[in-house]
Design goal:
The chain has one domain: Alpha/Beta hydrolase fold, catalytic domain (Rossmann fold). Helices cover 41% and strands 17% of the residues. It has 11 helices and 8 strands. An 8-stranded mixed beta sheet has the order 1-2-4-3-5-6-7-8, with helices on both faces. Helix 9 links the parallel strand 7 and strand 8. It is globular, with a radius of gyration of 17 Å. Pfam families: Abhydrolase_1. This is Alpha/beta hydrolase. One of its GO terms (molecular function) is hydrolase activity.
Length: 271
């Protein structure tokens, strides 16, 4: 299914089940298919599950503009308005978590009952004088240079780290290939622009203004979004937020720790 967002871009979404809505926002470079292990779980328990292919990803159109977090937030708002969703549980993974946070800052909490930041790249990644926990700009530039030089190789190397396979997680070569095919299907232009925008965006002030129930889920061995830079700092900023740390999880915990994640999200939604 498709809808048009604020600038006329046609975006794809999927809508399953009936009941209280849960909107899943995918990770950078991935699309709706990444939630394969969450959507059936929640629809079978009486929830309506909606997920969005952001612009430049999946089945959505690939314009040359709109790869900043304000545009991402406005695209989410357009989807919620299109379906007139209310009492929503908003779940965002990685960059999807940053987009969910930006949605709350720009569009408020009227339609949102609760938010879950899963492996989210929050609150602020860039090293600055007032953000000594951040990462140097050189880290961004090194990744972008590798990305521009050999994008398939860059994603191939990241896949092992993504799933923390060195810890013995049962992730098959076929599953890793499935992840890589999703990443490679996204627009190179879109993924690069969004990567840069996410690295440079400061969410610290807006996170302090969140007043709805907030769950932060993060892997303690997440190499893509180190927990000391992201999850542990996020939970200190959001009033009343709860942190669930998975000691052996990397960034791709929606696969490696699917049962634990689903159970924690279900408990959060029911509460």
């Amino acid at each position: 299914m498709f809808f048009e967002t604020f600038d006329g871009t046609r975006l794809a979404y999927e809508d399953y089940g009936q009941g209280e809505p849960i909107v899943f926002v995918p990770s950078w470079a991935l699309n709706s298919d990444m939630w394969e292990y969450q959507i059936p779980f929640f629809t079978e328990r009486g929830y309506r599950c909606i997920t969005l292919d952001r612009r430049g990803h999946g089945r959505s159109e690939r314009p040359s503009t709109g790869y900043d977090l304000d545009s991402s937030a406005d695209d989410i708002a357009a989807l919620l308005n299109h379906l007139d969703l209310r009492n929503v549980t908003l779940v965002g993974h990685s960059t999807g978590g940053a987009e969910a946070a930006r949605y709350l800052a720009r569009h408020g909490e009227e339609r949102i009952a609760r938010v879950a930041f899963v492996s989210a790249v929050l609150p602020f990644l860039k090293l600055t004088e007032d953000n000594p926990e951040g990462l140097p700009e050189a880290v961004l530039e090194a990744n972008l240079q590798q990305f521009r030089t050999d994008r398939p190789l860059w994603f191939g190397r990241q896949a092992q780290v993504w799933y923390a396979t060195h810890l013995g997680h049962d992730v098959s070569p076929s599953l890793i290939d499935w992840t890589l095919r999703q990443c490679m299907s996204a627009s190179p232009w879109a993924t690069q622009r969004l990567f840069e925008a996410t690295f440079h965006f400061d969410h610290r002030a807006s996170l302090r203004d969140i007043r709805i129930p907030t769950l932060v889920v993060h892997g303690a061995v997440d190499a893509s979004a180190p927990i000391d830079v992201t999850g542990r700092r996020t939970v200190r900023l959001v009033p009343g937020a709860t942190l669930k740390e998975y000691p052996t999880a990397g960034h791709g915990l929606f696969v490696t720790h699917r049962d634990e994640l689903n159970a924690d999200l279900l408990e959060f939604v029911k509460a």
